Amino acid sequence: MKEIVVAVTGASGALYAGRLLRALLSGGHGVHLVLSKYGRYLLREELGFRPDQETLTEFLIRLYGEEITAGTLREYSVADQSSAIASGSFDTDGMVIVPCSIKTLSGIAHGHAENLIERAADVVLKERRRLIMVVRETPLNLIHLRNMTAVTEAGAVVLPAMPAFYQQPQTFDDLGDFIAGRICSLLGIQHALFPRWTGSKASTEQ
Length: 206
Hints:
6 strands, single chain, alpha/beta, 6-stranded parallel sheet, globular, Rossmann fold
């Protein structure tokens, strides 16, 4: 089982975060979760999180069922840079920022490390571990593109929130699972979140 840092920032797209958390936790993996101020707001506005009435674990069980208790979930304050994940000596198997705001992208690209999300990402890069950034913005300006180039050159993987449609999704959850599945594949985690492309029927019939 893997230990994965997951960060949620304020870019729209809480669905992607939720489906990834479901996949990781139901698969028995350990999740080290950091929510930015607006990432927490995002879970409330887009997924119905009720922080005044339930814990994050209770929320995820309500959303996805008891299967998520197969894994372990630990939450860290975005302001606490003394947390374990702020140190390279704390061993993890990678980090995912989903969704990743343009502000967070910029902070990581320029090494600011002003909060725990940016510091944990900086640690993952310096330790040569996998960093996946699910950037959710459109359209993109030149500053955005240059920052994406900078983090890619530093070793990160930019995985834009661009779900495919060849698998004929029927629900929003199907679209979320496609992104979650692509993330899992990059982390070396086996999954069955969407059917893999095996070639077109037309090509096999010729």
